[in-house]
């Protein structure tokens, strides 16, 4: 029952051949290839209803904009070219064109074209019955249109998403998206979108058996569409009304709407609508026992169905299939003949082969012994080489990991001095001697902390001997947390961030002290880095089910769902900038995850963009 009205992402939803023809005449009189020319050429290509003409003008737009290095128009040309191939039924080629336009737009940062390309790919997937993939594309398009504050296309993508849920019979989700789209269209006074929403909501209600409400919605949609002069969706909705009245047993009214839909199809040359309305009328007349009318409309349905399905194409496909089967049988016959000849040759050669085998057997046994001895020697040497290579790879990996730890861990404390240097300038300008003295004490403390950190790292380097050290011992979480809060305090002060510790005294764990310190330090550093000024970072410790719990919460920018999925792996984009331009490569969280596992613990993350992040590290109180 559902009909899909796919709105284009960056254009109005309908094309007009008369407009296209008029613009073509204007276009022929333009000689200068400037932005106004390309704008007009794009409009000509867009307004074409004829797929071949749309293909011609979109190719012209692509070629000329490419020659003059106009990537904006080239990307739009590829999108329109995809529309043309979609109309021609060349879905694979259409997808290639959409992706090419998307690639150019992404390289140049054309956000509206990127969003439109996502929506166009969604349209294509919908036509290919790939509804789940279509929903993904529409949601990506909606997020970009939302950033662009493009209300029309926001409503359109929500409408199309709802239509996909309707296609897969997920009626609750379909209603949710139709209602969201309807609110947007009502707010911006966009009657075309409002009409489609009312009609599609009616289709869902009809599927759910709520015929009265369905009829009300569809009639409201038809009223709006009649005022707009858009007859195609009226025909679709009238066919749906015919189904509703047929379900209710009101066949007279059902026939009335089906005939109205058929008349619109005949007047507008809409073959698919003529086909669907004819089938509906045939079913209705059959239901009331009017066999003659039922037969008449059934013949009309078959005629248009065959026209649409392209009977010639189907026949050619059948001929190709027949030819394939014949060739396949002939190949089988030829193979059997060749096999018979081969069998005769084998029979005559059998005696000779047996004699030859007897002669060769002794020689082969000798060769086998020599070869077996050589193979054993080679295998032994390969095992030695492989063991040496594995050992060398492990040494190199350990070396690289150690260098990463050193470079990352030293970055946080050094950043403190950058914050202090800024404070020095402020206090010097204000001639605050007491403040400078106090800052000197803070610098001394920071220098001490950096020195202690360097000592720890150097001790690791001297004691490694090819592996990360792991020395579990009983640790006071309060003591180690306070130490790392002190290290990060200046960094927080420099960003005017409230750094708070809630540290009860009686929480202990059994873990490696250096790696636990690295965990806390990296999580605090990340929290401060991605929290804006006047925000807060809190470090809590507690005991829960035999684990010591370290929780670090911030009021920062949060983490997107995409990055959360790959937070502790090397997948996806790692680099990210802090709220004051601090550079982060994501290595710290990899180290945190590795050290949590080293200490037989686990880590949990909760985050929402714009609302902050919470990391909870669970480390065992005792190691068994």
Any chance you could write out the topology, listing elements then pairs?
Blueprint: H1 17-28, H2 35-47, H3 51-67, H4 71-87, H5 91-108, H6 111-127, H7 131-147, H8 151-167, H9 171-187, H10 191-207, H11 211-228, H12 231-247, H13 251-268, H14 271-287, H15 291-309, H16 311-430, H17 433-463, E1 472-476, H18 477-494, E2 498-502, E3 508-512, H19 513-529, E4 536-544, E5 547-554, H20 561-565, E6 576-577, E7 583-584, H21 587-598, E8 602-608, E9 612-620
Parallel strand pairs: 2-4
Antiparallel strand pairs: 1-3, 4-5, 5-9, 6-7, 8-9
Helix pairs in contact: 1-2, 2-3, 2-4, 3-4, 4-5, 4-6, 5-6, 6-7, 7-8, 8-9, 8-10, 9-10, 10-11, 10-12, 11-12, 12-13, 12-14, 13-14, 14-15, 16-17, 16-18, 18-19, 19-21
Description:
With 624 residues, this protein is of the alpha+beta class. Among the domains are: 1-128, Tetratricopeptide repeat domain (Serine Threonine Protein Phosphatase 5, Tetratricopeptide repeat), CATH 1.25.40.10; 230-309, Serine Threonine Protein Phosphatase 5, Tetratricopeptide repeat (Alpha Horseshoe), CATH 1.25.40; 470-620, Heat Shock Protein 90 (2-Layer Sandwich). Helix content is 73%, strand content 8%. It is built from 21 helices and 9 strands. The strands form 3 sheets. A 5-stranded mixed beta sheet has the order 2-4-5-9-8, with helices on one face.
């Amino acid at each position: 029952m559902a009909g899909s009205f796919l709105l284009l992402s960056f254009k109005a939803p309908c094309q007009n051949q008369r407009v296209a023809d008029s613009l073509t005449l204007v276009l022929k009189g333009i000689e200068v290839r400037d932005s106004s020319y390309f704008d007009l050429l794009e409009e000509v290509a867009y307004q074409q209803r004829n797929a071949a003409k749309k293909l011609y003008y979109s190719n012209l737009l692509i070629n000329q904009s490419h020659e003059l290095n106009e990537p904006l128009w080239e990307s739009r040309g590829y999108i329109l070219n995809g529309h043309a191939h979609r109309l021609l039924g060349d879905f694979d080629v259409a997808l290639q064109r959409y992706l090419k336009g998307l690639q150019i737009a992404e390289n140049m940062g054309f956000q509206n074209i990127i969003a439109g390309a996502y929506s166009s790919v969604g349209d294509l997937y919908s036509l290919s019955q790939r509804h789940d993939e279509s929903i993904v594309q529409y949601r990506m398009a909606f997020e970009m249109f939302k950033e662009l504050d493009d209300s029309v296309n926001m409503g359109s993508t929500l409408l199309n998403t709802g239509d996909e849920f309707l296609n897969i019979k997920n009626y609750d989700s379909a209603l949710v998206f139709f209602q969201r789209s309807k609110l947007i269209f009502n707010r911006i006074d966009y009657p075309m979108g409002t009409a489609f929403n009312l009609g599609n909501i009616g289709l869902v209600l009809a599927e759910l058996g709520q015929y009265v409400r369905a009829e009300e919605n569809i009639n409201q949609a038809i009223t709006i569409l009649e005022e707009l002069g858009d007859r195609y969706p009226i025909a679709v909705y009238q066919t749906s009304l015919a189904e509703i009245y047929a379900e209710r047993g009101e066949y007279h009214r059902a026939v009335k709407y089906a005939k109205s839909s058929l008349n619109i199809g005949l007047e507008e040359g809409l073959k698919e609508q003529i086909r669907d309305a004819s089938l509906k009328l045939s079913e209705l007349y059959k239901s009331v026992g009017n066999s003659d009318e039922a037969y008449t409309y059934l013949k009309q349905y078959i005629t248009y169905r065959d026209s649409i399905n392209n009977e010639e194409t189907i026949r050619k496909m059948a001929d190709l299939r027949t030819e394939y089967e014949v060739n396949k049988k002939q190949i089988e016959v030829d193979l059997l003949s060749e096999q018979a000849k081969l069998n005769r040759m084998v029979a005559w050669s059998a005696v000779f082969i047996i004699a030859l085998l007897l002669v060769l057997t002794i020689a082969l046994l000798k060769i086998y012994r020599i070869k077996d001895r050589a193979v054993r020697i080679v295998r032994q040497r390969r095992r030695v080489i492989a063991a040496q290579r594995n050992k060398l790879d492990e040494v190199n990996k350990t070396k690289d990991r150690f260098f990463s730890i050193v470079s990352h861990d030293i970055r946080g404390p050094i950043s403190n001095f950058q914050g202090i240097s800024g404070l020095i300038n402020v206090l010097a300008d204000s001639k605050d001697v007491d403040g400078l003295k106090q800052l000197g004490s803070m610098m001394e403390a920071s220098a001490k902390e950096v020195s202690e950190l360097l000592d720890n790292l150097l001790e690791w380097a001297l004691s490694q001997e090819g592996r990360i050290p792991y020395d579990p011992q009983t640790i006071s979480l309060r003591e180690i947390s306070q130490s790392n809060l002190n290290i990060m305090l200046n960094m927080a002060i420099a960003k005017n961030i409230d750094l708070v510790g809630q540290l009860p005294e009686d929480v202990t764990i059994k873990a490696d002290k250096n790696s636990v310190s690295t965990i806390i330090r990296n999580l605090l550093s990340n929290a401060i880095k991605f929290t804006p000024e006047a925000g807060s970072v809190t470090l809590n410790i507690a005991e829960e089910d035999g684990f010591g719990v370290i929780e670090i919460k911030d009021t920062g920018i949060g983490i997107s769902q995409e990055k959360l999925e790959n937070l502790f792996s090397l997948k996806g984009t790692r680099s990210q900038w802090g709220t004051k331009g601090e550079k982060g490569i994501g290595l710290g969280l990899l180290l945190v995850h590795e050290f949590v596992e080293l200490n037989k613990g686990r880590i949990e993350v909760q985050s929402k963009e714009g609302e902050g992040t919470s990391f909870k590290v669970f480390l065992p109180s005792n190691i068994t």
